[in-house]
Design a protein that fits this description.
The protein has 15 helices and five strands. It is mainly alpha-helical.
Length: 387
């Protein structure tokens, strides 16, 4: 439905230029969303796909294994949308503090994203509500170091920002003026906690994402925090026991359409077109995540059988292999810490895994060697190729 402009423009002066900043109306949309039979089917399919995703951890020996891998994959993808060029392997190397030749600014940015997401998860598990305070805390972690660290981490902006163009006067979109940000975010927080919200969690997440991106409350990092907000809404509303739905790959693959639909909501009030796009993305992303988890489970089972067939030394090799299932890129000292085995025992077991073709050494060095479980890393890296 094409309603009208979903807000109002306020004329303000920035750097001597008169500009029209957009102030969105509070959620939910008015008039209400048109939930046609076809749209209800989309919602049902997306909801069923989320249910399958939520149960996928039951397939895996360690639920945290999947979360660990997917958090890092999402960090790479979400940061790529903002222009970084770090790969998943580079992030894992950086976390080992052994990243020669890695583009440091990019990988620090991605590592910050992992830290922000992890911080948010921890706070929610402690019973802290999804709120503006939590959003600001996550933003402070996101911009704690590297690029953007000078752009008021953890604080809503006190100056005008804009999207596209070289200045506000020729920008593609100008978000609300700074004096309006606090009130708009307070309205969004009330909506997140159920105020006047007649819609299920999936639709709430779709609406909240657009509203957050429209307000653009920070000087930097809005896209990354806005994408995290989707998963956190679904988790807090108990649709997902863990926030493991990450839409960055879908948004990356349909980047132009994503931005077009966000703008169409603002200029024409077409929430329904955005909702259809969003629900299709949820179904596709959740289904792909389930398939990935199944592929990983089959991979682990297949490779365990190879180790069992290796005969002598299989039990030690299996202990080392299970560390690789948790962390697909490790050094020997890390494996020693996780298994309690001696360095020589770990080195021999890793040699066994190399001979079986399950792992390979990544550095080419005699010391400080790093080993990668390449089939596992290849599955995780699908779709994370740099833009």
């Amino acid at each position: 439905m094409r309603r009208r402009l979903t807000g109002r423009h306020e004329v303000t002066v920035v750097a001597g230029e008169r500009i029209q900043a957009f102030i969105p109306d509070p959620l939910p949309p008015k008039p209400p969303l048109e939930l046609t039979a076809q749209r209800q089917q989309l919602l049902e399919r997306a909801t069923l796909a989320l249910g399958r995703l939520d149960s996928v951890t039951l397939l895996l020996p360690d639920p945290d294994l999947f979360l660990y891998a997917y958090v890092r994959r999402e960090a790479v993808l979400s940061s790529q949308i903002e222009g970084t060029q770090s790969s998943l392997a580079q992030l894992l190397l950086f976390e080992l503090e052994e990243a020669p030749g890695v583009p440091l600014d990019d990988v620090v940015e991605v590592s910050n994203y992992v830290a922000a997401l992890t911080h948010g998860l921890k706070r929610l598990q402690e019973g802290f509500p999804l709120s503006n305070r939590l959003i600001r805390e996550m933003h402070a972690v996101l911009l704690a170091r590297g690029r953007g660290s000078e752009k008021s981490p953890g604080e809503f902006r006190r100056s005008q920002n804009w999207i596209g163009g070289t200045r506000p006067g020729n920008a593609y979109f100008v978000p609300p003026p700074p004096h309006s940000v606090q009130d708009r975010m307070a309205e969004l927080e009330r909506f997140l906690h159920g105020a006047n919200n007649p819609y299920p969690a999936l639709i709430k997440a779709a609406l909240a994402h657009v509203q957050f991106e429209t307000i653009h409350p920070f000087l930097d990092g809005n896209g990354r925090i806005g994408r995290l907000l989707i998963a956190f809404v679904l988790h807090c509303d108990q649709v997902l026991s863990q926030p493991i739905l990450y839409l960055s790959l879908y948004f990356k693959q349909h980047r132009d359409e994503y931005y077009r639909l966000l703008n169409q909501v603002r200029t024409e009030g077409d929430w329904e077109a955005w909702l259809d796009f969003f629900l299709e993305g949820v179904e596709q992303t959740a289904t792909n995540a389930v398939e990935t988890a199944k592929r990983l489970l089959l991979l682990f089972q297949r490779d365990e059988q190879k180790i069992h067939a290796a005969g002598r030394g299989a039990s030690t090799a299996l202990r080392v292999f299970r560390v690789m299932c948790e962390r697909p890129l490790v050094n020997l000292n890390q494996v020693c810490e996780r298994t309690g085995l001696s360095f020589p025992a770990v080195a021999r077991a890793m040699q066994t895994l190399e001979k079986l073709g399950l792992v390979r050494e990544n550095t080419g060095q005699r010391r400080n060697r790093v080993f990668v479980y390449h089939d596992y890393l290849n599955i995780l890296s699908e779709g994370t190729e740099a833009i």
